[in-house]
Amino acid sequence: MTVTSSADLVIAPRPRRARLASVRLDGFPVVPGLILITVALVAIFAGQLAPHNPEIGSLSARFRPPFWEAGGSTRHLLGTDQLGRDVLSRLIFGARISMVVGLTAVIFAGVLGTVLGIISGYLGRWVDQVIMRLTDTWLALPPLTFAIFLAAIVGPSMWNIVLILGITYWTRYARIIRGEVLSLKEREFVRLAIVAGCSKPTIMLRHILPNVVNTAIVLGTLELGVVIIAEAALSFLGVGVPPPQPAWGLMLADGKQGLMVGYWWLTVFPGCCIMLMVLSANLLGDWLRVKLDPQLRQL
Amino acid sequence: MKQYIARRVVYSLLSLFLLSLTIFFFVRVTGDPAALLVEPGASPADIAAVHHQFGLDRPLWVQYGLFMSSLLRGDLGQSFYYRVPVMSLYLERLPNSLILAAAAMILSLVIGIPSGILAAVRVGRFWDSIGKIFALLGLSLPAFWVGLVMILFFSVYLRWLPSSGAGTPLHLIMPAIALGWAFAAAHMRLTRSAMLEVLGSEYIKLARIKGLPQSLVIAKHAFKNALIPVLTLAGVNLIIMVNVAVVVETVFAWPGIGRLLYEGVTFRDFPVVQGVVLLGGAMIVVVNLLVDILYAVIDPRIRLGS
Question: Residues with Cβ < 8 Å from A220, sequence gap 6 or more?
């Protein structure tokens, strides 16, 4: 009697929805998630949301403060910059640049690093030696300095920045994923695949890759913040997204001119946007790390 | 031990070789490197002279040989803007960068180590959470924005500190905070994990069983051992600070290497940009080698285990 009842207890399935929710969304960082979704929506609908053209201003309306300060008006809610351009509109279009550059650079670096990591770990021997020595060398290069060097060679443009950041930040993926592949390739299912006569590319693509995707996604989320800051820094230094495009880093560089006379809104708003986005990406990355990949918890 | 050190040295030399190869490759990958190596607006005769000087009309491996031989002689080329060798320009700026890095390092250790210990002793409680938030902010706030906001408060509104330049200790305060901030968070995290590891060890339990008061256990037994990894990381970070300070130095017009790199980019002074990258990478490779050797000397497990 007691035996059956305890067995019933064990077998009794929990409602499917509740189980999914507890597995998938337990501890989901709601606020950071909402912030990132908002930024993404703002980036997509920038054209509809922005009250003014972000690249054209009127010189008669230069350095207007936000609406709640003396001299400000609701026409320019967050004020105007040194060329009379609307700060709010530039922030809205800047979200698009940060999102596009951040996501594509992270994906590019992730694909490059994952592919090299899998090849290095699975093929081993001299291929591994070559790729890992190259990774070591690139890790020794200070990333931002290296990115500036590359930018000085290829010249500034938004897509060049994506390329540069991808080439600069792939090393971390390669290192960690190689380590995972080294343990994966000793596992039964890989050995069985070899016995079954699968070719090396097939094994890497069909059997190894699906097992390291989680790690790559976690690393990518954690890297998103780093890449967004790097993009802002490059733009700030004048080797990133070229003016007059409204990148947040570029807005900070422009804002520096007005800083000494107290035009705080040109510095504070773009910086807050960068901070909020990076903070959200980091919190989301932390959560994903614990959820998807317990092995990476120490990272 | 000798074998271990020899292998480390060979790896480092290999890294330096790959570093020079990487830089060499990227300068040539976009087409004609002469376009980068001559001054903007140079005449065709000047371009032809550069072609000859760097052997750009000869096979790639000859070009690389020429590139390496001048590197090994310490010749990084001539700055277009300052009209002096890049090497002397670099050495002239290096002391300023080191001063800034040292100040930022002291600051980051003074903040990072005590807060890390506090977080480890009170793990999972209030101070640990505060520490986590602090670490997250260190990771998420761009150093140059921290710098700009500080200028706004301390230079523009309060008029306490000079906003740019160098020369007095007052000039050092804000750049050191902007640069040291992120590192303080890193040092806090490492101190915390090192302390947690030490606090879980047998001899700490013994010290507690002996009846030593908590403060003595932490200060005398745990702290000393937890300090080793933190100070090692600090040594490496000092060199990294010299090489990542470019944005902070630009914000505060601090005349260090980062500022030199910024000037190189702004004035399209390519030899300067190339020189700063090469020397930065080489510096980090050498410091990593020194740390590896130092570790092997201190800890027999490393040299025997490998």
Answer: A106, A107, A109, A110, A173
Q: Best of B144, B174, B244, B278 to disrupt the A interface by mutation (most A CBs within 10 Å)? A: B144
pTM score over 0.90: no
State the complex-level ipTM: 0.83
Nearest C-alpha in B relative to A144? B244
In this prediction, residue B40 carries a pLDDT of: 66
Which amino acid belongs to residue A130?
V
Rounded CA-CA distance A95/A35 in Å is: 12
State the smallest CA–CA distance between residue B221 and chain A in angstroms: 25
**Percent above pLDDT 90 for chain A:** 13
| Per-residue pLDDT, A106 | 94
Residues 6+ apart with CB under 8 A from A252: A232, A236, A267, A270, A271, B144, B145, B148
Chain-chain contact of A260 with B265 (C-beta, under 8 angstroms)? no
* Both structure tokens of A264: 């705080």
- Residues in chain A whose beta carbon is closer than 8 A to a beta carbon of chain B? 133-134, 136-138, 140-142, 144-146, 148-154, 225, 229, 232-233, 236-239, 252, 255-256, 259-262, 264, 267-268, 271, 274-275, 278-279, 282-283
- Among A95-99, B35-39, B64-68, the range scoring the smallest mean pLDDT is B35-39
Residue of B145, B164, B250 best to disrupt the A interface, most CBs of A under 10 A: B145
Q: How far is the CA of A80 from the CAs of A66, A83, A90, A166, B145, in angstroms?
A: 8, 8, 10, 34, 19
Cα B251 from Cα B259, distance rounded (Å): 9
Site from A141, A251, A279 to mutate, B interface, most B CB atoms within 10 angstroms: A141
Q: Evaluate whether A126 touches B10 at the Cβ level (below 8 Å).
A: no
The DSSP annotation for B75-104 comes to: ---B-TTT-SBHHHHHHHHHHHHHHHHHHH
Q: Is the dihedral of CA B190, B193, B199, B201 positive or negative?
A: negative
Mean pLDDT over all residues of chain A? 82
Alpha helices in A29-124 (DSSP H): 30-44, 46-49, 87-123
Query: Which of A152, A154, A260 comes nearest B265 by C-beta?
Result: A152
Phi, psi of A80 (to 5 degrees): -130, 165
Cα–Cα distance for residue pair B211/B8, rounded to 1 Å? 45
Write out the DSSP string of B35-71.
HHHSPTT--HHHHHHHHHHTTTTS-HHHHHHHHHHHH
Q: What is the C-alpha separation between B288 and B297, in angstroms, rounded?
A: 14
Give residue for tokens 């910086």: A271
Backbone angles phi, psi at B93, to 5 degrees: -85, -20
